Amino acid sequence: MTDQDYRNTIAQNWLLKAEDAYETASLLLREKRFVGCVNRLYYAVFYAVSAALAKDGKEYGKHTAVRAALHRDYVKTEKIPPECSKIYDELFEDRQEGDYKPQTNFDEADIRKLFVDTRTFLNHFKAIL
User: Fold this and answer.
1) What is the C-alpha separation between 47 and 49, in angstroms, rounded?
2) C-alpha dihedral over 119, 122, 123, 125, to 10 degrees?
3) Is 17 exposed, middle or buried (0-12, 13-18, 19+ CB in 10 A)?
4) 112-123: per-residue pLDDT in tens?
5) In sequence order, what DSSP letters do the residues of the chain get, joined into one string?
6) Number of structural domains the chain divides into
7) CATH number, domain with residue 67
8) What is the pLDDT of residues 99-115, one digit of tens each?
9) Angle CA 41–46–51, to nearest 5
């Protein structure tokens, strides 16, 4: 197995995790468990970016580093559209709020929009993988 083959395998595994997180978010949305849904949507986009980074031979241990790499390596270089950075940033902030502020509640309509936006994000990353 070549180095690139190995990176491609890791990227595909991250992409599978992204899809799994998205499907779990769907289940949580159906049950109206919005904080958990936001968490899974965020991890879906985080895993998708991690897949692209793995394919490029990069790996980061911090969420903020992955976020910075998204903007630097994929948005600024126009590999993905700027709307993806907005989607990621919104989910990043919402996940932080949902995970660390116990009084957080999300509106169902907003979550449904994030659900659609997340699918768009995943599709853009699948296209570059």
Assistant:
1) 5
2) 160
3) middle
4) 999 999 999 999
5) --HHHHHHHHHHHHHHHHHHHHHHHHHHHHTT-HHHHHHHHHHHHHHHHHHHHHHTT---SSHHHHHHHIIIIIITTTSS-HHHHHHHHHHHHHHHHHHH-TT----HHHHHHHHHHHHHHHHHHHHH-
6) 1
7) 1.20.120.330
8) 999 999 999 999 999 99
9) 125
**CA–CA separation, 36 and 24 (whole Å):** 9
Whether the predicted model's global pTM rises above the 0.85 cut? yes
Phi, psi of 15 (to 5 degrees): -65, -40
Q: Which residue has the tokens 């879906």?
A: 44
Each residue of 7-40: pLDDT tens digit?
999 999 999 999 999 999 999 999 999 999 999 9
Query: What is the domain range of residue 104?
Result: 3-128
